[in-house]
Amino acid sequence: MQTIIKKPLITEKATNASEKFNRFTFEVDKKANKIEIKNAVEKMYGVHVTEVRTSNYGGGKSSVKYTNKGIVEQKSKQWKKAVVTVADGETIDLFNNY
């Protein structure tokens, strides 16, 4: 299960979503699907997951760097984000469990 969920994403937007809507954000494995993510979160944190949303980031445009050796192009890192909605009355304490 540790290989599917890499780390929780703690940003201002993710913190507001967790407080208002019971949604928690994680960086997950690129190859993981929604069912695997749901099972991993339920097993790791002991909560009931009602919904999983995923987004893929990076890997598209390459960044260009001008160096002494010439122009170097580099693609950005590819990663996947999962926004998990937890059942009402349940919560995940990311600061103590991780």
CATH structural class: Alpha Beta
Total number of distinct structural domains: 1
Low-pLDDT windows of residues: none
| Head-to-tail CA distance between termini | 13 Å
What do we call the CATH homologous superfamily? RRM (RNA recognition motif) domain
Helices, by number, come to 3
Average pLDDT over all residues: 91
Q: Tally of extended strands? A: 6
H/E element string?
EHEHEEEEH
Find the structural class using helix and strand composition. Answer: alpha+beta
CATH topology: Alpha-Beta Plaits
Q: Architecture in CATH?
A: 2-Layer Sandwich
- Please describe the biggest sheet, giving its number of strands, its sense, and whether it closes into a barrel: 4 strands, antiparallel
Q: Determine the oligomeric state from the structure.
A: single chain
**What is the 3D shape?**
elongated
Widest sheet: strand order?
1-2-6-3
Rg (C-alpha, Å)? 17 Å
Strand content: 35-45%
